[in-house]
Amino acid sequence: MTTREAFLSKIRAAQPAPRPRPEVPLFPTPEGDLKARFTAALIAMGGTCVDAAGLNDVNALLAARFPDAKVIASAVPGIDGTRPLAPDTVPASLQDVDVGVVRGRFGVAETGSVWFSEQEYIVNSVGYLSQHLVVLLDPALLVEGLQQVYRRADFTSARYAVLVTGPSATADIEGVLIRGAQGVRSLTVVWLA
């Protein structure tokens, strides 16, 4: 027996007996409208919320808010994009995307976060390599808090899942806040059923 095999054998032999995971309690949640709470939390994290009546409004918003955007990657049917997304798209090929457009599966009022899986992103790197991320979110799909997220069937069935809260940001020792240092520079949630 090699040293590696002996080492792993000792680890396997020392494992405790399996036991069920503890039940995560549902904590009391604040009163108030979920959409208003989500919006306040997202704004505190540097994000923006806007209302739209339909996909035409979203296309107009993209043209008005990002007039210099040359590459728009849209994972939402009906939203104009210049870069098509498909499951076989090479993730690194999205390195020059100015605006990524995706539909969030649901939002979390407690934190102002939006939940995505590989189904929403189509190509996971669109959520990180885009300069600006525009998220379509149905306000009826908001949950109270993170405890509800972990109870959802789509959370446990997704191969990949991420909660996104606002644009990427970092601050140095001097306290200078820089947006987009390690991800998207802006995050806009568009309320659209």
UniProtKB/TrEMBL annotation:
Record's Pfam families?
LUD_dom (PF02589)
Query: Which stretches make up the LUD domain?
Result: 92-190
What's the protein name?
Answer: LUD domain-containing protein
From the broadest rank down, the organism's phylogenetic lineage runs: Bacteria, Pseudomonadati, Pseudomonadota, Betaproteobacteria, Burkholderiales
